[in-house]
Amino acid sequence: MADDDFTMQDEMRRAFSMLSGKWKLEIMWLLNQRVHRFGELRKAISGITQHMLTAQLRELEADGLISRTVYAEVPPRVEYEMTAKARGLGPTMEALTAWWLEYGKTVPQKPISRGRKAGNTSSVKKRNE
Q1: Model pLDDT, residue 4
Q2: DSSP secondary-structure letter at 65?
Q3: What is the Cα–Cα distance from 67 to 121, expressed in whole angstroms?
Q4: Rounded mean pLDDT of 67-96?
Q5: For position 126, what pLDDT does the model report?
Q6: How many other CB atoms are found less than 10 A from the CB of residue 67?
Q7: What is the three-state SS of 2-40?
Q8: Lowest mean pLDDT across 34-48, 80-94, 100-114
Q9: Fewest CB atoms less than 10 Å from the CB: which of 25, 64, 77, 128?
Q10: Which positions ≥6 away from 42 have C-beta within 8 Å?
């Protein structure tokens, strides 16, 4: 497919894929506030594993949305910040904030945990009965 054959839908799919991922928008939201170190991000994002945070940060960096700076110190210090390209998403984040302030209370709250809770064997018991 030639570049001129792309439709706006294709372009939006590409844009959405850069931000899709369970944690990317939350990471971007935090980095929009200020520069963060890896440990700060991990503490700020409840439920994210070190492995997943590393993977999401690498993808965002590969897409040019964040930059990673390593300081030659002992112990090494690594900081993450949004790039100028990502700062272009500022109006989108502001629009999402305005939307949430207006409609957020009408959105049903979902449970934070995912999957089956430990010790919940009622569905297993029902199947075995």
Answers
A1: 61
A2: S
A3: 45
A4: 93
A5: 47
A6: 16
A7: CHHHCCHHHHHHHHHHHHCCCCHHHHHHHHHHCCEEHHH
A8: 100-114
A9: 128
A10: 48, 50, 53
For the residues 43-49, what does the mean pLDDT come to?
A: 95
Residues in CB range of 57: below 8 A, 6 or more apart: 27, 38, 41, 66, 68, 80
Q: Where are the domains of the chain?
A: 9-96
- Predicted TM-score (pTM) of the model is 0.75
Confidence (pLDDT) at 79: 97
Three-state DSSP state, 71:
strand
Q: Tell me the angle at which helices 24-33 and 50-62 cross, rounded to the nearest 10 degrees.
A: 70
Instruction: Kindly report the CATH number that applies to the domain delimited by 9-96.
Output: 1.10.10.10
> Band of the pLDDT at 109, cuts 50, 70, 90?
confident
Q: Encoding tokens for residue 118?
A: 């430990």
Q: Say how far apart CA 17 and CA 128 lie, in whole Å.
A: 42
Contacts of 72 (CB under 8 A, 6+ apart): none
Name 61's Cβ contacts closer than 8 Å, sequence gap at least 6.
67, 68
